[in-house]
Each structure stands twice: as C-alpha cells, then as structure tokens.
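job 3f2a | input accepted
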Amino acid sequence: MTVRIRNWIRFLTVFVIFTAIFILVMDKIVMPIYVEHGREFTLVDVCGRSLDETAIILNMVGLNYEVIDTTEDDKYAPQTVIDQQPPPGTPVKKGRVVRLIITGGERFFPMPNLVGKVLKAANLELQRLHLKVADISYEFSSDKPTGVITTQSIPPRQMVSSADSVSLVISKGPPPRQLQVPDLFGLNLDEAKLVIRNAGFRVGSIRYITNDDLVAYTVIGQKPEFGILYDNPVAIDLEVTIASHTGE
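job 3f2a | predicted structure (248 res):
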C-alpha cells in the first residue's frame, strides 16, 4: 500500500469520526435545546394589570410586549392593560411579541365656549367632557338675559383635561343702574378710596411713584379710566405720589 493511499484512508477515517460526533451532538444536545426553546405554552392573562407589572410577568416567561394604542377609561387607572393580542389562553412560544392596549393619562381637549348658554345646557356639555364646575356666581349683565352664562374662568379653546374645573358667572339680567368710574385724578389717597366705595366700586392695587412736585399721596393715575360704565363693581387701581425721602 502506497503512502498516498494510507493518507487517504486516514483522512477518510477522521472525516467519518467527526461526522459521527457532529450527528451525535446535534441529536443529543442541540436539537433537544432547540425543541425545548420552541415549545408552546399558554399565554397568561395580563388585562387589568399595570403596564409595569405586565412587563415583569411577560419577561419572566420569555415574551416581549408592544403598546399599540392608548385609550381613555374611567374604570381603570392610567397605564393599565385593558386588551392584549394574542388573547389569554393562546398557545405561544418564547420570543413572541404580545401587543397591548393600555389606558392613557390625562386626555387633553379644547375648552368649549359656554358663554351665552343656559346653565342646564352648559352642565350637559361639561358632564360629557367630565369637567367639573368649581363655583357659580351671579352678576348683572346689560347684554345677556337672565340665566345665561356671561363669563367662564377658562377661555374657550384653551386645552384642558377632565382634572380641571371651571367657574361660571350667570346673568341676573340688566342692572337697575350702571356704575360709572369716578374721576380720581388729583384727589388725596384717602379721599379717592372714599369716592371709589361711594360709587359702588372696590379699591384695587396702589402703585406709589416718587414725585417731589406734588403733595404726597396724590392720585396721578387710575385704571379703569374715568367715565367707563360697568354693570357690576370692579376694582380700580391707583397710581399715587410719594416724596423721594419717604418709603412706600
């Protein structure tokens, strides 16, 4: 037998041995692991659980998850699973993605315009949006009939959520007389306060301005201005002089 033939026989023998070992490893080790990994099991029900708890449960059994949608549901807290796909009880394998629908947080929407509506109609709209009424007050109105909303604390179209509440002002009809803002320029501060109250208004903020040319505590500015008519009392803000060597 030549050297070449002996080498060929050795190569063939080694090839057969390694092939047998490879088949044995695949049959006894690799394939059982692969079959075990791909074995199906029943999907657990995660509906009603929080998203954090669901993530832990699914990860423990080798499943992944994906939130595909959020929805508003007053019966559940935010971040609660309310639907899953595949549904509970479905046979699944490790690595499967479970798609979830959860409740969202606060849903924001534009504030409706309630001015000009009667209280009953406004309440129906607020209830539909799950908005609450903080308080209701009544004032005279020259342009709104009795029982109609004249003012709302949250402007129309401002973004709000169901956690917000709105205050409403309802018309008492036209006032018996309108209030005219008095002329306060040049009055002493104490005199101006008395005139404001006698005219049916309220004293608002007072801003002190240094001025040595005028007597201290002389009114040199007011807002709103003299002559404006109001249905209801408003606050009148004042600008008042003080001497440069005195404090406010």
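job 3f2a | Residues 140 and 172 are 5 Å apart (CA to CA).
job 3f2a | closed
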